[in-house]
Please model this.
Amino acid sequence: MRGQRTTSPVVRWVVSVTALLLVGYLAALALRPSIVDALPAWLAWFGRPGSMSTLGIVVTVLIVACVLTFRSNASHRVVGVSFTVIALLITMSAVLGLASYWGCHDANHPPVFTPLMATAQLVKGSTGDFSVGGRTCPNPTPAGLELARIVALAAIFTGLGGVVVGVFRSQVDRLRANLADHVTAIVGIDDDSQSMVSAVARTLDRRSTLVVITNAADDRVQRARRQGARVVLVDFNTPSTLVSLRLWRHLSRLYLMARDPAINLLWLDLITSRLSELDPKQRLPLIVRIDDPWLAEAWRAQQFGGSDTRWAADVVGKYEVTAGRLLDGIIATGGIQRVFVCGTSQLTLALCADLTRRALERDFHTAPGAVPLPALTLVEREAEEYLRDHDFHRQQAGFVSEGPKIDAVPEAPTVPTMLRLVGDAEPATSAVIMVDTLAATIGTRLAARFPDMPVYASDLNTNIADEAIQVVGSLQSYSLVLDTGEGQIHDAWERAARLIHERYVATLDPQAPRSPAAMPWAELSEFYRGSNRRQVRNALWMVEQIAGHTWNTWGTPPAQLSGRDMADSAPVEQLALMGFDHHSATGMARAEHEDWCRYYRSNGWKYGPNRDDSRKIHDKLVDWSVVESKPDLLNAAVRSLAATLWSLRQLGYRSRPLWQTFTRVGTVTAEQRTTRWTWKSDSGHSMRARAGDWAVQENGKIWSVRDDIFRDTYEPAGDGQWRRKGRVQARPARPGETVNTLEGPTTAADGDWVVRGSNGEQWPVPGDEFARRYAEFHPPAEAHAPNGSDG
Model:
């Protein structure tokens, strides 16, 4: 969806034609004033000399036409549009002026030359009367001439405004970016990433403003503006110019596109620190450019796991994107059964990874009529080593899918070798990709031998638009690009939301009536698309923050689950098989329901006993207490949660327990203090307690607890004693790691545990104290949620 708010071309053309007709009528009336006498009495006032109503109507129509021109799809450059409007206004003024002055001549003033000179004075901005032989001409002054004077002045001021906006365009862009309600920011652009600007612009929500942040004041800035972006210039060597931007308050999506991944991660740290001061938003979509496929996968796994819930992160790189585009073109032909990848480079690994991802998604959901995926054959002396690297990656990621068929031929991809391999595999069902490390002449020779076989050869001088041009046979050149093409998805979570929805739609009866929420993704409204995205991103947050799992399973993949076992199990048992106990499952079901309610209510929906999508009424917009009291609603909530987490697991996004659940045990003495005070942590850091916090003591040690947390986690035990209650999650601390507690940052020592409360607050506890204060929680075997069907 385009980010620019545009008006229907039909409306724009109707207004423009109306304006031209009105101007044409006034010009004709200036030539022949008697025309007005032939009009009906109710219309005879329009166009008469001195008619202010006529001028008001025509000027209003002209203003509307100019505004619609500025807001048109082609008007990315304000200065260019202003010149177009100026040319139209000047032409309009000249036509009206010439028509008005056409009769102004006598024996001493030539018939044609005199009206032309008077019109020239008018276009220059003259608003005075024109005299011929001592008399004012024309007299009385036609309405068309009055309009011509107004239009001439408007052209002059429009030109001045366009120049001012052009000179101060950077300041205007910065102001527009700061005032935007929803900002999609791209930080850093170069020749490789320039194409990403238009690709991102095509996918924007109507409410979003695309902002490019760069320090390159060159032609790339102008191209970015033509692609629909606001450009904000900063000095990347001075971090304060980046983090001080006001637009971070309204950030909704972030792209970090520097060529060097280290710079992107530096920017990410700066922006994350700034956002932590401004906005509590969680799971903002983030795309980081990392071209190397191995580095990209390692960072993706690291970012996917961990305790930072600020971002829903993914990676983009030119090898990954190029691999996707090449396979898209090959699969689209419909008859390719085997692809020979000649040469070994980062593109080779990217092609293997992309085809494996497609196979995983096909196992999850295969669209009707989808063409079967081809097999890959790697041809190069090191091909078997690259294939082992790819298999190692699959094992570390824990992919349950068997994946596509990939084999290796450990021979140099010479022309004789390829002639033999292609001949054995049938040229009509084969394709060849020559990676960027091979000479283009090999591809040319193969294309000449097999004119009907697609051959893709790397050429750094190839433009994206040239990819479909075939020079010899079916030889096509390609270059490493970052533009995924129109309609493509840029992050894994959007793709997951789309696939989950498409599989759900495929289970519905095609003959049955469809609700707005059950339409195919391409026809789904942005509200329901947003709801699907929200569900996926909220699942990422819940699994980490409520269930104490980590999504980072690289190197330690969880146990595989069979689809048959899951299908034969009730939703609560499905969650247990995925490692979620009853307490965590209930907490996640509640968090998902409450987040769903917030999303719907923020978009104007209300509760009603009968669902009505057209009136934004939903019968499930109730408090969680109501859900708990009704078995059918509780079953539906747990079933929906299990379906989402199982779908993510099938798509390759698996979690494993990181935090364990413990019960708080033991007693302490405590008193509530009315003034601020400080205390020392085990690491020696000075911690600040606020007025109203409780001073808790045990075995000579004292620490503070916030009042609301204290009352939730302690209960009176008599004689000034307080008994611990409730559950927490805990994990072994990494020696030396910094833990941000409510009282300030502190450092964990070797043997410490990091404890997390119900509100997400964390603090370190020494190992011996942890053993006294907490006992591992073992849920009763009989505790379970009500069973429900998968209907």
About this structure: The radius of gyration is 35 Å. Residues 1-5, 73-79, 464-473, 781-791 have pLDDT under 50 and may be disordered.
